[in-house]
Records
---
Amino acid sequence: MKLFNNLTRKLENFEPQHAPIVTVYSCGPTVYDHSHVGHARSCLVWDLVYRYLNYKNYKVKWIRNITNIDDKIVKRAKEAGISPDKLSRKFTYEFWADMNALNISWPDYEPRATDYLEEMYQFIQGLIDTGAAYESDGDVYFRVSKHKDYGQLKGMNLEKLKEGVSRVDDNSRKEDQLDFALWKAFPNETDTSFQSPWSIGRPGWHLECSAMIKSILNKEGLGDTLDIHAGGDDLIFPHHENECAQSECLNNAALAKFWMHNGMVMVNGSKMSKSEGNFFTIKDLLKKYQANTIRYFCLSTHYKKQINFSDEALEAAGKGITALIEQVQGELVQGEKDLDKNFISQFEEAMDDDFNSAKALALIFENKASKETAAYLLSVLGFDLSTQEKVDGNKSSSALATTMDLILEIRKDAREKKDFGTSDKIRDSLAGTGIEIKDHRDKASEWSLN
C-alpha cells in the first residue's frame, strides 16, 4: 500500500510499526451542536480507511475522540441554562445516532476529554520540567521555539510563521505570540472549570488530543507514535501542528508516521456557513437522502479533494447506487470460489493507491465482475446492501421530506390556534407509521423515521 503523507508531501509505502497492528487517530467532534455535512464527509472517509485496513487483515486500533469541554460548549450551555456536561452528553448521543444512521463503524476507543484530566496534568508538568512550557498567572503555555520542526505540517519555518502574526496582544501572558495555551485559567467560572495544579481552568484543545493519544497508546503497549493521524485539512494548522510540537517535545518521538487530511466541504459551490444559509446537519441530509447515497457521493471523490454537496449531485448519486444495489441485492457469497479473483486484484490495486475509492467504485460500476463479487466489494466499502429501497434514485425519500414539511406546517398552524386535538392526532397517527415528531420550545418541530 502507498499513502500520501502530508508530513513529507509524498506518496510513501505504508508499513505499520507493530504489524499486524495499525494505530489510527481521527479528530472527532466538539459536541455543542448537531453534526453537519462536513462531519459526515470526514467520518465516512476515516470509516473507509478503517474498513479497508481491516479487510487487508490488519488489526486496527481506531481512536476517535470527543471534545466535551471547551469555550463553545460552555457558552452554549450557559445560553441553554444547563451544565456543559449535560449539553455535551446530549450532542454526543446525537452524534452517535448520526454515525449509526450512516453505517459508520464504531471506533475501538472514543475518549472524552474530561475523562483524561489527570493525564493532561501529567503531560503539562512533563513539558514544564523540560522547559518546553511555562506557567503565567494561572495559564500554562507551550514554547514553540522549543520544537525545532515547528511549522512542518504547515510547510513553513518558525520565522515565516512569526511574520504572519497580524495582531500583537500587549497584555498577553505569553512570552511569544506563537506560544499556545496548554491550560487556561478561569478563576471566576468554577462551575464550568476544573482544579488543576496551576489554577481553576480548562485544558487547551490541542493538549486534549495529545494527552489522550499518549495514554491509549501507552495502555496498549504501543509506544508514543501513531501509524496514522487523520482529520480535515482545516485542522492542519494550528491544531495538528500544535499537537505535533507538544507531543514530540515531551516524547522525543514523532506523534505520527503518516498524516492524512480530507478535503474541504462546499455546499452548492460555497463554503458552508449558517450566515450563507447553506448549513446542513446530517439529520437534514438523511431526511432527503439514503445513507448509501451519501456514502456513494462522498466516496466517488478521492478523499484529498474538495467535495461539493448539491441536490443535483446527490440525486444523481442516488440513482446510480440504487440501480447497482438492486442488481446485487440478495447475493450471498458462499465461499471464495464465488469471487472473481482478477477483479478483486484490480479493486485492491485501486484502494492500495492512497485509498482511491473513486477508482474502486468506477471499477464496480463497469459491471465486469460477477454479482457476488460486486456485492462483496460494496460491503467492504461500507454499503448496507440490506436497506436500499427499490426506488428511482431518491424520489421516494425526497417526496417524503416534502410531504413531511407540509404536514409539520399544518400541525404548526393547529398548535398556534390552540387546536391541540388535531395536533396530537397528527403526531399519534404518524407514530403508528414509524414517523416520530419531536417538539421543541425554541425551534421548529422535527421528524425522524424509527
Note: Confidence is low (pLDDT under 50) at residues 390-396.
---
Amino acid sequence: MVTHFFVARRMARRFVAGETLDEGLAAAREMNEKGLMVSLDLLGESVHDEVTAISATDAYVNLLQAIHKNTLDANISVKPTQLGLDISEQLCADNLRRMLTTAQECGTSVNIDMESSKYTDATIKIFRQLSQEFDNVSTVIQSYLRRSEADMTHLADEGSTVRLCKGAYKEPPDVAFPEKVDVDANYVKLMQAYMADDNRQKGAYLKVATHDPNMIDATLQYVKEHNIPVDQFEFQMLYGIRTKTQFELHEQGYQMRVYIPYGTEWYPYFMRRLAERPANLWFLLKNVFTR
C-alpha cells in the first residue's frame, strides 16, 4: 500500500535512483561524469524461496554485464538474505560465487552488505570463504556492534577490503552500543586501527562510509597526520545525502564512491534512512513538492 502512495514514492526518490535498471545506470553515469565512483544496489532482502534468490542473482549478473557494457566506474553491493541466506549458507555462497565470477570477467567487484546482527557470523564466514577464491570481494562492518573491533582485527590480518559504517538496524544494548557518542567513538577507533601502516601493508583497504562531518574530519585528520596515500582508502556516501560534501571531497583529491540503490523493493531501505536520522523526514516533506 505504501509503495503505491504518491508522497511516499516521491520522498523515496531522494534516496533511490528509480525502480528500473536503466534508471540505476543513468544515475551511475551521472555520478561518473562528475568524477565519482559508484556502487549499485538492486534493492531486495529477506528472500525465503530458492527461485527468487536465483532470480535476484540473475538480475545482478545482468547488472554487472550492463556496467561493463556501459563502461561505468561502478561495482555492486548485495544483501546476503536477498541471495537466500535464510534458506542456506551454501545457496547464498553459490549465488555470490556466480556473481563474483561475472564481476571478475567484467573487471569490477562485489560488496557483501551487512544486515542485522542475526546474520553477522554467517556473512563474515561466507566472505572469508569467497575471499580465498576471489580478490574482488569485500564486506561491511558496523561500528555500533560491540563485536566489531575483534572482527576488524581479524579482517585486517587477512588483508581484507571492508566498508565501515555505523549501522542502521535495531539491536539490543548487549549487542550494539545504544548511545550515539559510543558508536561514533568506536567508528573513529576502528577507522584509525584499520588504516594503520602495518594493516595497509597486509593489503587491508578501508571504505569510510559516513555522512557524519565529525567522522569525515577525523578521517581527514588521520590520513594527513600519517601521510596515507589517497588511493589506499575511499569515502562512501549514500545517493541523495550530503551531495555537496561528496563533490567537495572529490575536488580535494579524495576517492568518493556513491552508493546508489534502485528497484521496486525500496520501502525497507527508505525507512532505515529515516530511522538513521529522523530529521530526514522533515527535510523530505519540505522538498517533496518542489524537487
Note: The chain has one domain: 17-265.
---
Amino acid sequence: MRYWRIILLAVVILLLSAAAIAYFSLQPRVVSVFPADGSTDLHGTTTVQAVFSTGIRPDDIEKYFSFNPNTTGVYQVIGDTLVFSPSVPWKQDVTIKAAIKPGIRSALGIPLSKGVEWQFATRHPWLLFLLDESDGTHLYAVDPRGLDVKRILPGGDSVLDYAAAPNSVIYYSARTTSGSVIRRYDLASQKTTDILDCGQALCSQLALSPDGRLLAFYRVGAGETGALWLITLKDGQSAGDPALLGQPGHTTRDPVWASSGWLAYYDQTAAAFQFMDPSTGGQASFENATGEPGSWSADGAYYTAPDLSYTQGSAVTPEYFSQLISYNPVTGLRSELTRDNRMEDLLPAFSPDGRQLVFARRFLNPQNWTPGRQIWAMNMDGTNVRPLTHTGVLNHLGFAWSPDGSLLAYLQLNTASFSGQRQLLIMEIASGVTQQIITDAYNLQWLP
C-alpha cells in the first residue's frame, strides 16, 4: 500500500511539473519589437510593432501599451503581432519611450508576466529645396545639424514644384516629354504614385490642405488662362476630376492653406485675394493691389499680405509705401499690421507657435534707403520690432520656419553682383548665428 502511495505521489508531481512546464511554455513572451531599441532617424508615420511568442487577445490593449511622450493611434492585433499606427505623426527630433506592461493575455487567456521597455528617436527637421542642374530640376534635403545634403526623389524626374505633407509624403509636379504630371512620393516606403496627368499643360504651385484631402495647384498651357484647380484625394489617390477654383477666365495663383481649413489665393483679374472654406462653403474677398504672397497666422484666423498705400510725398518721404495687412475671412475685417510711410514691408512669415512674424523690410526715404531688403521680426503684440540682418546690399527672401520655430531658412541675393547667385542660409533665431548651406537653391520648405 505504501508502494502505491509513492507511485501516486510521483505521478502527481510529474503531472504538476508537466502542467507548470506547459503553462510557462504557453505563457506569452515578447519576441521582438520594431523599431528596435536605440533606433534613430525614424519617419513621423513609423508604426510600432511587437511580436509575441503566441497569439494574443485584442482586449484592453491600450492598458498595457504606452508611450512617453503620450500619443494617440490605432491598435491592431494580427495573429501574434501587435501593431500601433500613430494617428498624428510623431514629433520630430524626439526620443520616444515605449513600454509593454505585464497583463496582456494570450489567446488561451494566459497573461504576460514580464514587460518590455525600449526607446527610439525620430529624425530632426530637414530642409527641402529645389536646385537647377544640367539634367533638370531636382529636390534636395539638408540636415541642418550635420549639413548633410542629399537628393530626395528617385529616378530622373525634373521637378516643377512640390508640397511636403506631415505624414512623410511629398506631392510634386514633374516635367514629361509633352507637359507635366503630379505625383505622390512616400518617403517611408519610397513608393511613387501618379496622381494627375496634366497633359501638355504645366502644373505647379502645389498646396495640400491640412487634412490631406484636397490638393490645389496652378495649371497653364498653350492657349489657356493660367488658373488654380482643386483635386480631391482619397488614400493618397485622386478621387475624381479636378475642379476649377474661382471664376472661369480669371487668372488665379498662389494658393495657401490655413490650419483652420481656409484657402487663400490671389485673383489677378479681380485684383483681390479670395478666400474659401471647402468644409463650410464660406467665402470672402479683399481687394489688394500687389498680389504679393502672404502667410496665415498659426491659428488660421487671418491671412497677412503686403499692400500699397499712397501719400502726398515730399523730400523726405516717398509717394507710396508697402505695409502688411491682415485679412480675416470670417469677420470680413481688414487691419494694418505694420504702418510706416518710410518702409516697404513684404514677404511675411508667421512662426509655427504664432508668437513671431518675420518679414522683409527696406527703407524708402533717401536717408536710409538700401538696395536690399533686410529680415525684420516682431512679436504678435506689436512689440520687439527688430532687424535680424544689417547688410544693406544683400536682399533677403524665401523665408521658411523650422517646425519647432528655432530655425529660419532664407535666401540671400547680392544686389551688387551680376552673377545673380542666391545663397541659402539657416539662422538660429535665439542666437542669431547663421550658417551658409548651398548656392542657387530655391523654394524652401521644411519637411513636417
Note: The two ends are 80 Å apart (CA to CA).
